[in-house]
Amino acid sequence: MKKGLMTTLTHAGSKITMPSTSMPKVAPLYMNAAYCFDDAETLAAVGSGEKEGYLYGRTSNPTNDCLREILTAIDEGADSQVYSSGMGAISMAVMSNIKAGDHIIANKVIFGTSFKFFRAELRDKFGVEVSFVDFANDDIEKYFKPNTRIVYMETIANPTIDVLDIRKIAASAHAHDCLLIVDNTFATPAVCRPLTLGADMVVYSATKFMCGHSDILAGVIVANKKSLIDHITDVGHSYGPIMSPFDAWLLIRSLRTLEIRIAQHSRNAMQAAEYFQGHKQVAHTLYPGLASSPAHKVASEIFSRGLYGGMLSIDLGSEKNVNDVIRNFKMIKLVPSLGAFTTTVSDTKTSHGAMTKAERDASGLSDGLLRVSIGLENVEDIIEDFEQSMKKVGR
Hints:
- This protein is an alpha/beta fold.
- It folds into two domains: 59-255, Aspartate Aminotransferase, domain 2 (3-Layer(aba) Sandwich), CATH 3.40.640.10; 258-390, Aspartate Aminotransferase, domain 1 (Alpha-Beta Complex), CATH 3.90.1150.10.
- The protein has 14 helices and twelve strands.
- The radius of gyration is 23 Å and the shape is globular.
- The termini are far apart.
């Protein structure tokens, strides 16, 4: 029977059947919010898990699952889940495993918005106890309580670039029957795989180095047990921060070159750190690849293939000096993010603006600290831009 124009427009071309002789080189993008069923019984069977299939985009999507396969493999995990931003992943990983009255031990040096999430949301609003502890210099053993459920840290601390021994912290957490969650954003699996060192979950702002192109927002959780991801996914049905399929497709594209990109970021960062280390305008250079770094020994033990990542920080002595350097760049830009293919910088008031000045001071985050995300440019050009800019400090 001949169909009307609107019926044809809305129903024709709704299926793509690929011949078995030719398969797509790149996994297709499935931009579907929902899926079709021939009967209610089949829908119910898929919903209960009796049959494989997809129901609704807030739960799962074929493109997202393709991404999850890659992420689970490269972090040597049991399963993973993807969300619409790094904070979406962090909040889902934490909130799925705590309740009011529980206790969290968090390193006092973490991303500013993560700090605010623990303080303003969990502690002040939802009645979760939070102890901010100096993991680098204090013994976390004395902070465990009977109600402690989670220990939280970053592989490479933002922005002090400290590297902590995940193996020891994992042992302490597990001795007290706690989960260890590690934010591996700065390192990526190309530099460090925290799950292999004892962490229970690793989280990422995949917006940063994992993507590397500054064109999506993305968050990732990878766990050492499938049951952890199953629980987080179930809780996520209520909160709904799932990653969009298009962002998942773009992140798949980016991950294909992750190892070679991180290797170049790391090589450039090492050369830049060596340059900064001998510069008269730089009081301290913070980079674990330097033999002089207090973090060098641990980083060399837990990092892969002699790579130390693309992030470093330099102490320029004062907020004025930081502002002068930023103002005089010709190529490098001040950006409230990191991990892109170009070199960018961020002052502590930008990267940790979610913290009060008193909180930044208590965490040792000086206003004279400049966080540098080293890009993929020729390193000589990166150094040249810093050199010409720092010559103008104080003028």
